[in-house]
């Protein structure tokens, strides 16, 4: 079931009706809806915020998703870095997505030398440069939620 939100955009003095399968304030890109927070928060606060919206912190499980997300960020990501749904808080070095899946196959997306924070940096940031970085989970950053239309 799709719920379409009607938005009006002005182009060359003409109102254009735009329909999107995402809620107001979310960005539709390919087959997913993205919410880019305006607020800052810790990783845990970001995770709770996404859950309260019926979504997950951003997850990237394939090259196609990384490319898709890079393209989406190029057009709509305002923050230079945002929390994503990846953490090794449960066990050092065992990076897991918020849905409980392992991220071992995604090592190629870390910036060279990352993750490098040991027990001090247990949460992942996605940056506009397309790389992932580990950071202290208590830092304040924007976040990206990902959900279905």
Automatic annotation (TrEMBL):
Residues covered by the C-type lectin domain: 29-146
Keyword ATP-binding in record: no
One Pfam family in the UniProt entry: Lectin_C
Entry-linked SUPFAM superfamilies: C-type lectin-like
InterPro entries per UniProt: C-type_lectin-like, C-type_lectin-like/link_sf, C-type_lectin/snaclec_domain, C-type_lectin_CS, CTDL_fold
Keywords, comma-separated and alphabetical: Disulfide bond
Stated name of the protein: C-type lectin domain-containing protein
Species for this entry: Chelydra serpentina
